[in-house]
Structure formats: structure tokens, C-alpha cells
Design goal:
heterodimer; A: 2 domains; 50% helix; B: mainly alpha; 0% strand
């Protein structure tokens, strides 16, 4: 049994959101939605699972913090002991306040950069990558829903039309 | 319309009564002679087996133990100050919650915020405590100015007499600012200005309920902007006058902001707690989880902001290591206040950051209540560590006078706030952003 993929173009985000809800209510399988900007509430309507990027960010932050602690201890205490603020104690614990800004900055640096890199890898984005969106208008002012159905293409098209689709075509 | 439940009213009154007894006990139990102090200290060392060897010197750095008698005298002054300090800390703590709420309320108006309108009456209820709180503070400061206790050490006239052995050149140079009449005038202006804004904005907010146009709303918008300018200047000066001047040789340009951070995070926490209480009783049907989420985000954010300022003030002084500046941190970081000073970092920073980091936890009422209580205790300790070292000194305790004072002002706070909440409908009408606030969805 072969399934057909229908592409429907919309020109308003509110109409798009309602169409997505109608499709979900009718138990159609939404393959993908292409939008030129983030549409508020769309991810809930499509039923995407919650993002786990926040957890990765927390872990990256901890890695950055640990790296900063190791870096400061190695460079300022172990390898070349420094007299910090006129307090030549040469102990990490007693000089810790001086390292807090570095610990903070590296935590933020690691969390932010590694999170962005993770995001790019997860969305399969890299330089010179060919665009995957089927219609260039979805980067400008149009929205597209890709729905697949195994049977009854006609009723799906009717539903999409009723929901306000400007243009409907079957994916080649 | 909210009605003050009998049980809550009774608990407030019981708290006030118990608190008043605790305060009275504190005043009646102060030692009068150095002999009594000696006895007390011997009892204390016998109980604890550890003499306080670290020399934290309140007020004047030159007070290093010259003789046992002068040290005992010093301890006597500290112990005589203790009940006053207990009252002052609790008084200021609840006052600053009302003041911080007023600032938060003004920011909502000035920023034309849409989400928070359903919480306006809750905030107005909390700021109702501003007037009684101000009167207590004013009464206390007038008492301190006239009673000759030299609770604020710079009030001692001997310091400004070149013939006296106590003559202090540094304080002489500061005396154009730190003198009792000017200090009292400033205090009066601050309290008057804050209370005037509170009176004016509440009046307009109530009038807007019946109004058909936006004239009262617009008045409040303008008044809020003026108030915020006035507030941020006067709040800073207030913190120098009421708290920083307890250690008159020491100064920090960051102190005003530091007190502000403490004041603001405590205020937002109390807004959240009162909101959760009223919502649980069913009086705030329009408040949804997203409103709570936003309040919890503010609690989280301002806890980090407080830590940032705490650290900024500490790190520079620690690094530069100049005696006139480190005098402030010596009793706190290394002396007998160490446990409180480091402990409040755990309750004001580590605990909120770990508990409230997860987005979902910011929507669970009991998580917010738990964190809120820890944050409030932490900021009480923060104020305690600001005020106690220069007034009470090494022999600090958190005992009946301190707990009594907190109970008294907590009872008064609950009574005034919840009484004010019954005075007007809990949903403000006529605000142009009301609709947005009702439908607020994060």
C-alpha cells in the first residue's frame, strides 16, 4: 500500500495553526510543517515531544565549570604558582574568589556554544548544505504543511481547502 | 471579594502577642553591668567549650582588646543593643518586603506589562503594610536619635569634639552628611515620598474600577515613572543611612544595589506566596500557572542577581585587601558570623538555582512555596548579617528576642496585608491590559 504526500500552502499563521489542529482532530499524520518564522504554539499543535536541548545545555555548563576549575588550578596553582591579590597561599580554595569570573564565563561559553553546535547537528545543518524545504516561498511569507495519507486523498484535500489552504499539490 | 478568614486572623494576632512577649523578654533580660556580662560569658564558654578567639571588632577597628574591662564593656554594649537589633532587623525586613512590592508594582505600570494585571490587587494588599512599617521605622530611628545609646555610633557627639580622646577625623569629614538633623530629614522625605506614591496609586487603581475612560490609569502610569526615579535614588541613600552608617568608617558604592536585590527578591517571593495562598482558597480564579511561572522566574532571576552583587562587593574588597575595606568582611567571613554568611549563600543562591532551574518546577505551587520560604529565611539572615556585627558584635545569638521580633512583625504584616485585601475586589477593573493578563499564556 503506497501512501501519498500532500503539500498545502497557507499564507497566514493563524489559519495554519487552525489547519494543523483540524488535521490532528481528523487523525492525519503530519510529516512536516515549514514556516518562515517560529509560530507560537505550533510545536504543541503538531504534537512534537518536548525539546531536550535544555538538559544538554545544563550538562555542557557543568563540563565548562569543571574545565574552568581544572584550568585555573593547573595554570595558576600547580604549573606556575601565582601570588594572587597579595595573598601567596598557593591553594585553590583560598584563591577561589579570584577564579569565579572565569568559572562563570566558561560555564556560559560551553553551555551556549555546545548547545548551538548540538542544535545544528540535530537539525542536520552545516555550511553549504542544500536547502531541504520544498518550496522557496516558505522562507518568505508562506507556510506549508506536508501530510501523508494512505487512502482517500480527496477527503484530505477537502479538509485542507476548508481549513484555508491557498494551494494544494501532490508530492512528486 | 476576599474575606479575612477567622483562623488566619487569629494566627496573626497570636503571632503578634507571642512576638510582643518575646520582645519584652529581650528587653528585660539585658545585662546592666559588666559583672553580669562576665558571668554570662563564663556560662557560655562552660556550655560550649570554645572561647571566641577570633577578634571581630564591631564599629571601631581600634577596639582591639586593650584590657579585659574594656572588652567586657564592649560586650555589655553589644548585649544591651541586642533587643534593639532584633526589633530593627525584623522591622526592616517586613518593611522592605512592602517597599520592594511597591517598586515591582510601579515597574509593571511603567513598563505597561500585560501579564501581571491580575496580580495588582495582591500587590496593593502587600504594599498596605508600607504605612505601618514606615511608622515603626520612623519611631525606631527617632528613638535612636534621641536616646543617647549610640546605636548608630556616629551619633556620639564626642567624636566631633577635637578636644576629646574619641575625636574622629574621618567622621568629622563625613559629618556634613552624617549628622542627626539632616539624617532625620532624609528619612522623613524618603518615607513620605514612598507612602505618597502608594496612597496615590491605590486611590487611582480603585477609581479606575468604576471609570469609563483611562484617565486614572494614565495618572498611575506617569506617577509610577516619577516614583521609580525617586525610589532608586532614595533606596540607595536609605541603605547608606539606615544600614551602612552602622559601620561609618566603611563604605561600598554597591551597597544600595545589594540591599535593593535583597529587597526585591524577598518582595517577589512574598507576592508569589500570597498569590498561591489566595488561589488555593479560590479567590483568584483568573490567575493561571503561567502567572506563577513568571513569578518563579523572577524569584530565580533575582536570586542570581543578588548573588552577583554579593560577589561583586565581596570579590573586589577581598582582592584589594585594604584594611579599611576588609574591616567589614572580617567578622562576617572569618569571625563569628561565618556560618550565617556562608549559609545564606546556600539558601539564597544554591538552593533556588537548583530547585527553580527546571521550567516545569516553576509551575508547581509547593516547589515555589518551599523555595520561597528558604529564600525568605536566607534574606532575613542577610539583613541579620548586615546589622548585627556592628551593633551586637561577637556575642550574637538567634534566640527568643530575635524570633519574638520576627513573630511580632510577621503577625502585623499578615494582619495588615490580608485586612487590606478584603477592602477591594481582587480583580482590578478597567486596566487596558486586563484582557491580555487573563489570557496570559507562556
Amino acid at each position: 500500500m503506497s501512501s501519498t504526500t500532500i503539500q498545502a500552502i497557507f499564507d497566514d499563521d493563524d489559519v495554519l495553526l487552525r489547519a494543523v489542529k483540524n488535521l490532528k482532530d481528523a487523525h492525519y499524520h503530519i510529516e512536516e510543517v515549514f514556516t518562515p518564522f517560529p509560530v507560537h504554539g505550533l510545536e504543541k499543535a503538531v504534537g512534537l515531544p518536548n525539546t531536550r536541548i535544555a538538559i544538554t545545555s545544563f550538562i555542557y555548563g557543568l563540563i565548562g565549570l569543571s574545565f574552568a576549575i581544572w584550568l585555573m588550578d593547573y595554570t595558576m596553582i600547580t604549573d606556575w604558582p601565582q601570588n594572587i591579590g597579595g595573598k601567596p597561599s598557593f591553594s585553590f580554595a583560598e584563591n577561589m574568589p579570584a577564579f569565579v569570573p572565569i568559572m562563570f564565563e566558561l560555564t556560559v561559553f560551553f553551555a551556549a556554544h555546545l548547545m548551538v553546535i548540538t542544535f545544528y547537528m540535530r537539525s542536520k545543518l552545516w555550511p553549504y548544505k542544500k536547502a531541504e524545504n520544498p518550496d522557496p516561498r516558505t522562507t518568505d511569507d508562506h507556510f506549508m504543511i506536508e501530510v501523508s495519507t494512505a487512502n482517500d486523498v480527496k477527503s484530505l484535500e477537502d479538509l485542507l481547502k476548508k481549513s484555508g489552504a491557498k494551494e494544494i499539490k501532490t508530492k512528486a | 471579594m476576599y474575606s479575612f478568614s477567622k483562623r488566619l486572623k487569629l494566627s496573626a494576632l497570636v503571632l503578634m502577642l507571642l512576638g510582643a512577649l518575646g520582645i519584652a523578654y529581650g528587653f528585660l533580660n539585658t545585662p546592666h553591668t559588666t559583672a553580669q556580662v562576665k558571668e554570662l560569658m563564663q556560662q557560655h564558654t562552660a556550655e560550649n567549650h570554645e572561647a571566641t578567639s577570633t577578634q571581630a571588632t564591631p564599629n571601631e577597628a581600634e577596639a582591639t582588646a586593650v584590657s579585659e574591662e574594656s572588652e567586657l564593656n564592649h560586650a555589655l554594649h553589644g548585649l544591651q543593643n541586642r533587643p534593639y537589633t532584633a526589633v530593627y532587623i525584623a522591622m526592616f525586613f517586613f518593611f522592605m518586603i512592602a517597599l520592594g512590592t511597591l517598586a515591582f508594582y510601579a515597574i509593571q505600570y511603567a513598563a505597561q506589562a500585560g501579564w501581571s494585571i491580575v496580580l495588582f490587587r495582591v500587590m496593593e494588599g502587600i504594599t498596605a503594610y508600607l504605612l505601618p512599617g514606615s511608622l515603626f521605622i520612623l519611631g525606631f530611628l527617632i528613638l535612636m536619635a534621641i536616646n543617647g545609646l549610640h546605636y548608630f555610633v556616629w551619633m556620639n557627639p564626642e567624636l566631633y569634639n577635637p578636644q576629646s580622646e574619641h575625636y574622629d577625623e574621618i567622621l568629622m569629614a563625613k559629618s556634613w552628611w552624617l549628622n542627626v538633623p539632616f539624617w532625620m530629614i532624609r528619612t522623613f522625605i524618603f518615607l513620605l515620598g514612598w507612602n505618597f506614591y502608594r496612597y496615590f496609586s491605590r486611590k487611582n487603581s480603585l477609581a479606575q474600577d468604576q471609570a469609563t475612560d483611562l484617565v486614572h490609569y494614565k495618572k498611575n502610569f506617569k506617577a509610577s515613572i516619577i516614583f521609580l526615579v525617586f525610589f532608586i535614588i532614595t533606596e540607595s541613600i536609605m541603605s547608606w543611612d539606615w544600614i551602612m552608617s552602622l559601620t561609618p568608617h566603611w563604605q561600598s558604592t554597591l551597597f544600595g544595589w545589594y540591599v535593593f536585590a535583597s529587597l526585591f527578591v524577598s518582595a517577589i517571593t512574598v507576592i508569589a506566596l500570597v498569590t498561591i495562598y489566595l488561589r488555593a482558597k479560590g479567590f483568584l480564579p483568573q490567575v493561571n500557572d503561567s502567572h506563577l511561572h513568571d513569578l518563579a522566574k523572577f524569584m530565580f532571576g533575582f536570586s542570581i542577581f543578588w548573588t552577583y552583587l554579593w560577589f561583586s562587593q565581596f570579590m573586589l574588597i577581598w582582592y584589594a585587601n585594604m584594611p579599611e575595606e576588609t574591616a567589614y568582611f572580617t567578622p562576617r567571613l572569618l569571625g563569628p558570623f561565618q556560618i550565617l554568611f556562608m549559609g545564606m549563600l546556600a539558601s539564597n543562591f544554591v538552593f533556588p538555582i537548583l530547585v527553580l532551574m527546571n521550567s516545569d518546577y516553576k509551575r508547581i505551587p509547593w516547589f515555589i512555596i518551599l523555595t520561597g520560604i528558604v529564600i525568605l529565611l536566607g534574606h532575613y539572615v542577610d539583613i541579620f548579617v548586615m546589622i548585627t556585627p556592628p551593633t551586637v558584635g561577637n556575642h550574637w545569638q538567634i534566640g527568643i528576642p530575635e524570633i519574638g521580633a520576627v513573630c511580632f512583625f510577621l503577625g502585623l504584616f499578615i494582619y495588615v496585608v490580608f485586612n487590606a485585601l478584603t477592602k477591594a475586589p481582587l480583580q482590578a477593573q478597567g486596566n487596558p491590559f486586563m484582557k491580555e493578563s487573563e489570557h496570559y499564556h507562556y
